[in-house]
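User: Structure tokens for this complex, please. No commentary.
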Amino acid sequence: MALNARLDHRNPLVFDTHELGRRPGALQRLSREIDAPKDLGIQGVIGVPEGAPVELGLRLESVMEGVLVTGTARALAKGECVRCLEPLELELVADFQEMFSYPDADDRGRPKAEPADDAEEDEDRLFIEDGLFDLEPVLRDAVVLALPMQPVCRDDCPGLCSQCGARLADDPDHHHDAVDIRWAALQGLAGSLEDGEKDEMSGEAPRSARANEKQEK
Ligand SMILES: [Zn+2]
Ligand SMILES: [Zn+2]
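Assistant:
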């Protein structure tokens, strides 16, 4: 599965290992700024906009079976706060480490893994092809792992008013007096009935209260 599409050395996420060579222990450091590929991040939540700069710092190390790539990607991710829905930006630092194997690594005198393990491992293995490797899948995984699944604009973002949708950060004293009192009263009522006909009453009371509210407006 690894050798399906030929890698294009002009692709900015494709790196060349010819200079590094195949002598185990050889090291090479590379840095490159690329334009973010499409859909880099967690779709619909937060990500690096397509075309935005991504700074890559890589360390290539030649080992017996391939090239061990260690690196960091830095970029500005954009999304929106899950609580208040305001746009937010986040300085993303994504670290990664990945082994890119020579396709012929198993033929170079190294003990082969047991056949069963081999088949499973091959699914996820990444290979060097014609001396090139494609960092894109590694970068994508690292960026997703480094981003928050539930980004917030700040840790204590109070979010939106559950009744009118106002942004509470803009208006900390925001409240709805009439409704609050009514609900508080109902909650008190429900509480006092707790031991008695709880199921019947607490289910019924809020519904009729809501109906009254609408009529008043
Ligand atoms: Zn927020
Ligand atoms: Zn409100």
